[in-house]
Design goal:
Layout: H1 2-17, E1 21-27, E2 30-32, E3 51-55, E4 60-66, E5 72-73, E6 85-91, E7 100-102, E8 107-116, E9 119-126, E10 134-139, E11 148-155, E12 161-167, E13 173-176, E14 185-187, E15 191-192, E16 201-207, E17 212-217, H2 220-228, E18 234-238, E19 241-246, E20 249-251
Parallel strand pairs: 15-17
Antiparallel strand pairs: 1-2, 1-4, 3-8, 4-5, 4-7, 6-9, 8-9, 10-11, 10-13, 11-12, 12-16, 13-14, 16-17, 18-19, 19-20
Amino acid sequence: MKKFLLLAAMMVALCASAQSYSLVGYINGADYGWYNDADNPGTYLFDENGKLTATFNQVSYVFVKLSDNSKWFLTQNYVDFTGNSATATMVYGQNYSEKMRVPGNKEVTFTLTEVDENTITLTASVAPEPMAACWMKHNWAGGGDTSWTWKHATKVEGTDAWALQAVYGGSGVNVNSVESDSGAKWFATPTVGSDVAVGDLCNFVYFEGQDFVSIEKVVPTAINDINVTATKAYKTIENGQIVIVKDNVRYNVMGQPVK
């Protein structure tokens, strides 16, 4: 009898561990996977790693259920995207009734993490749209608040980097696709060259794909050497850094040879 009970408990545990999760809700303009669809686990199934990728044809409102419809996981408050992602704690059994809003006509990657048997965390993200323009804000001359202004950066051809030259002021950098504080991204600790000091003329480079700002001191003589025959030079990215190649010699954005 004891062996039978132990075997039964093991079977229950095995079935529970094999339980899968489905994404359901108000999807593509209609209820999907709700009570009237209780026997259908749906096509939006999370894999064994808690991953799911889906594209909806319009804004949709989602939550999660166990595929056998035994538990529904919803949010306490309505959750929307902030930037390119959203994260929600979803709970079963607390009379929660809200959902996560996800954009339409974009590929959304969902990641589900189990917290305990009645709680999950759902994260949704979309790939950011490439910037059409780039602006940077910094205390350029190191002169306090009066020097905090926006400057327009230029796209480095053939890369995802945006660059400008200006005087380093010793602080972080704001980056935005428009000349505005609204929606700007703040980089409190950009990557700053070891030889950079306040007052130096520097190259400010925002690497859009890797999402970081690099600040390196300008070396005028080396830059001039490159610019003399700029038509014979080309730019590329190696290990996340812009490299200028001229006459088989590789230079960084400060114009210094790269070994």
